[in-house]
Design goal:
A five-stranded mixed sheet has the order 2-1-3-8-4. It has a three-stranded antiparallel sheet with strand order 6-5-7. The longest helix is centred in the first third of the chain and has 21 residues. About 45% of the residues lie in helices and about 10% in strands. The protein is an alpha/beta fold. The relative contact order is 0.17. The two termini are about 15 Å apart. Helix 1 packs across helix 18. The radius of gyration is 22 Å and the shape is globular. Helix 2 links the parallel strand 1 and strand 2.
Amino acid sequence: MKRSRLARLAVAAAAVTGLILSGCADADPPPGGSNGSINVLSVGNPPMQNLKKLTKKYFTAETGIEVNYTLLPENDVRRRMDREFARQGGHYDVASVSAYEVPIYSERGWLAPLDSYVKSDADFDQGDIFPNLVESLTGADGRIYAQPFYGEGSFLAYRKDLFRKEGLSMPANPTWEQVASLAKEIDGTDGSSGICLRGLPGWGQNLTPINTVVNTFGGAWYDMEWNARLTSPEFRKAVRFYVDLIREHGQADAHRMGFLEVLDAFVAGRCAMWYDATVLASSVEADGSAVKGKVGYVPAPHDRTEKAGWLWTWAWGIQEASENKDAAWKFISWASSKEYQEQVAGELGWTSAPAGNRKSLYTNPEYQQAAEAWYRQEYKAATDSADPRNPGVGPRPYPGIGFVGIPEFAVLGTAVSEQIAAAIAGRQSVDAALEKSQDIAQAAVAKYRGE
């Protein structure tokens, strides 16, 4: 083996080791709940912040169950959740799991199945949940392991006022090349960036949109023999396109900006276009947003595939080691219910209701009126995403649109995201980032190749 390759493998090993150690450095979580309380670990997104505000008034007052929340940024909550569930310490009764964690956690016995609770809780109305979300939260054994708090696809938002000012038109179903051309033409209009995109490291941060670009450009992480393909022409073209688009027409310091930071930039009027999650549209159209009423929405841009949007859900799962499963289900049944959507609407307006999870929301005239600007595109994105089993061009041995559906991806994906973020920051070339990433990806799945 050449010395240069040995050096790259050393870098890869150091990156993976560093991530594992960082996951072990979190402070210990609080003690587990009791019959009168439960502990909930969750990503600290705006819908979860709203849930926390309304819990005492609506859930605790009705059930007498106190809820202790730990809300963390996405990268931090994933490290905490992986450690907690692997240990099965029972400190947290409920956690916000996703379509990525459910297959892995359920196979390892870390999540409690919810089928018996669903069967005995007719008011929950399981049939109202979007079938694609139910499928994504079902284990290999056919049992349900989580219930969606909200679901999302991805779409492109654009400033209609700036487009009119520059005499530009947004295609109804844009390609990425069209988006890049528009970003170049509109960049700098009224001080805005041509487009804003996630650049912050994290497999659930910059890699989520990047993976959709890789898929539609014809790339894949692995071939059917589990050989890494991160230096293939298609993968290189996709990542180079994304990095160049940010560096040439994106926001400053993009490598420091995840979905919340980019949302803040768009809401403040600093972006002409923005590709991200449909669930964030309610924040764009909220009172106080500088761009409320000025935004149009179109499907996720594509290239070689017809569809390119991701499918995602933050959902509630119960730790198998929890001693408070009945109370935990009561919380889930409320937090993922039609009743909770109505309570949020009464307090904060229909645009703040968790969306993308229940069919009934999209036949509700009040929601249709409140979310008139985007609910049709939101519904389409949540129900007509790329195929999670085959989202790109050609076969692949793993499922997932915005992620690679294998346990190793939590570590290897974050390591690769660090390399790409360094390219976005201008600290290394895309080719250098992908050469290092190729070694990380190849080493991560050696056991699948029988090595």
